[in-house]
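Appendix B. Chain record.
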Amino acid sequence: MQPADLNMTTTVTGHQLFLFVTFGDGGAGGELAEAMDRLGQGLENVHDVDGPPSDDAFERGRFQLLRAESGLTSENQIIHPAVSESNGLIRLECASLEPIKEYEIGLRPLIERTGGSVETLAGVMRPRSYTSHAMSEFAYAHAMPPGPGEKYPLAAVTPMNKIDAWWQMDFLHRESFFLPRYDENEEMVVKGHALASAMGVPGINRRLVHSPDGYGLEGNYDFVGYFEFAEADAPVFREVMAGLRDTVQNPEWKYVLEGPEWWGRRVRDAANLLIRD
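Structure tokens predicted for this chain:
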């Protein structure tokens, strides 16, 4: 199903690739680290950047390396071992697909030579479809901007699908799930998505990408969420996700099927990415 058929924006403002890397037993050492670092030359290393990207950096492409925090990753309804059991992640973003696709093409043989593999989740960045001015002020005007890895060392990735019943709804019906609901006495009876996740706005940087090819497609995720936060805000992230999964307070989640909730630690270079427990 295409965005235009759903009263959702069709505009694409950028591209992201999530390269989940599993290292084999052959040669995941210094030579591989050097080769991976050479791949990133010409792209901006997000690890040391404080704030949003410059126009130039976004045009050239950007990357962040993350080492898996395997003890924190959890499976959900969609079992995806190539994600949940991966050793690391390289998140790429760019105004156009070509520079980061070139990185992926260069990375894949380096990893496969070690007996490893690369699992790619691709997404496009779009303007928000369900956000009025008032909601934007509530949910995004005071949101935490991106920051360097030393300040916000943890990240989580949440791929998910909406079931067919969601996409068959009228767009006003879908939009209603993001707002609280009230009874005949004007008492709030359901928080909705916005209030269920509100406590994460000040301390968790959130980015969301959409499936490049449309929604409800076999073998694709409709959305991939990416979050960065400080160690101290890890419990807040867990609480926010618990609130979203509470279908009494957030009925939207009755229509969600989640892939693995993958956790990683941001690192500056490939040598730190290759460290194995």
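Further analysis of this model is presented in Appendix C.
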